[in-house]
Amino acid sequence: MSDTPSADTDADDSPFGHTHFVDDDCLASPPAGKVVRFRERPDDPETDPLRFDMWLAAEGSHGPMRHVHPEQVERLSVQSGTMGITHEGDRRQLTAGATAVVPAGDVHRFWNAGDDVLHVRGSVTPGLRTEQFMRVTYGLARDGAPVTPSGMPLNALRLAVLLDEFDDMLLLAHLPMWLQLLGIRTTAVLGRAVGYDNRYPEYLPVRRE
């Protein structure tokens, strides 16, 4: 199995080493050891799923921090490797062939719990603007912006402006949702005042006809 495939390599191949273009279907967050390849985009983002493959590196990959999808169901099927996951108050490890379904509103986190690259085939339903959010956060991480070990912007003002725009898809789990939303709204005002924006056209793909 090649570890340096081209953009059109079969999704079962590890994409580490692939050159990631801004408008490519394959995104990388090097600080977090994460790579995502979009498999199927929703015809109607308000109802249809976004499907993707994700790889987490064997070393240095923390996976996403504890978070919540307020309006989306997330499905994660392990293709190879070992995935650690916490959700619904349970912590466990899943191997190839196992699937976890995370209901909307459930606090959860997943990570590479093994010694090899973890390959997960996932979806979020409905897709909403998940791809846009991922393109921006992965793009910032790839281009050297300070980020957390999981790849989220470290600058609180920049992060608040982003979360204020995308709060229907993702919230962090360290505070109650109502309190977090209040903090996001307040901090986002400050973020915009010093020049941060939620528009990053350099990270969004050229529109396909």
Automatic annotation (TrEMBL):
Span of domain Cupin type-2: 59-119
InterPro entries on file: Cupin_2, QDO-like, RmlC-like_jellyroll, RmlC_Cupin_sf
Pfam families in the record: Cupin_2 (PF07883)
CDD domains, sorted: cupin_RmlC-like (cd02208)
Region Disordered, annotated ranges: 1-49
Biased composition (Basic and acidic residues): 37-49
Name this protein carries in UniProt: Cupin type-2 domain-containing protein
